[in-house]
């Protein structure tokens, strides 16, 4: 049984429909990506999960029952708009948020210091929040989200404000939590991180669900007939080939869509015959970024929507 089911969820703000009749399931022991561009409706969806907003239509089912205001007690929630008390010290902040979730004592304090050491903030334990950089405040916010060891975790744009080193550390910790059988919802507009981390996704654009399901199955479906060539020289002649549907030219890197996957070998043969220098030729591969761009450009095309 899926622990969380979203059914026909809808939220309007005046004439704006921020979330438009979306439905999806979040599986057990997974990282579920809620993805889309800024303003797509991701945060509004999460705020309905957390009972910050009440839906105009639809329902949210958690482990077989409609969620109640108490649902937030089971959840570690990292909001998009951070909320730390600027005058409190780092360690007091962490222990305060843990106590709100019912966890206190020496074990929690020990874990707090362990996380601070891991994030290279141990020397700032007594510092006030207001004296930290935005990136370090983000790390404290993340630690406070997971310190009480929740089974269900919602992370809304968790990589915001982090440098590449701390982004990698955060990614590693998220994967560790998945290994402990946590259910994690990761909301982000960063498609590359979603692709690296997520098992299942729900893709939202302009408040509408345009794709959802198992990420590997989705990528397999959308990668058929897609080719990337890194080359030297002009290959504009491929636009005239009858089996080529679409060409995106990025200089010495060209992305090509052919009618059927068996045309891959035809294209390779033609390039070789034309004496094109090929440094890389990859077939039947695509990225989540490419899938999103394709779908976002065709949101009115029903055949591109659905579950995989």
Give the mean pLDDT.
Answer: 89
Sheet-strand content, in percent, reads 25-35%
Low-confidence runs:
300-308
**Assigned CATH class of the largest domain:** Alpha Beta
- Write down the CATH topology of the largest domain: Rossmann fold
Number of domains as seen in the coordinates:
2
CATH architecture of the largest domain: 3-Layer(aba) Sandwich
| Name of the CATH superfamily of the largest domain | P-loop containing nucleotide triphosphate hydrolases
Structural class estimated from helices and strands:
alpha/beta
> What is the helical fraction, as a range of percent?
25-40%
**Widest sheet, order of strands:** 6-7-8-3-9-10
Per DSSP E runs of 2 or more residues, the count of β-strands stands at 14
Distance between the termini: 18 Å
Largest sheet: 6 strands, mixed
Shape: globular
Account of the protein in words:
- This protein has nine helices and 14 strands.
- The protein has 308 residues and is α/β, with parallel strands linked by helices.
- The protein has two domains: 154 residues, P-loop containing nucleotide triphosphate hydrolases (Rossmann fold, 3-Layer(aba) Sandwich); 85 residues, Alpha-Beta Plaits, CATH 3.30.70.
- The strands form three sheets. Strands 6-7-8-3-9-10 form a six-stranded mixed β-sheet, sandwiched between helices. Strands 2-1-4-5 form a four-stranded antiparallel β-sheet, with helices on one face.
- A hairpin with a 3-residue loop joins strand 12 and strand 13.
- The longest helix has 16 residues.
- The protein is globular, with a radius of gyration of 23 Å.
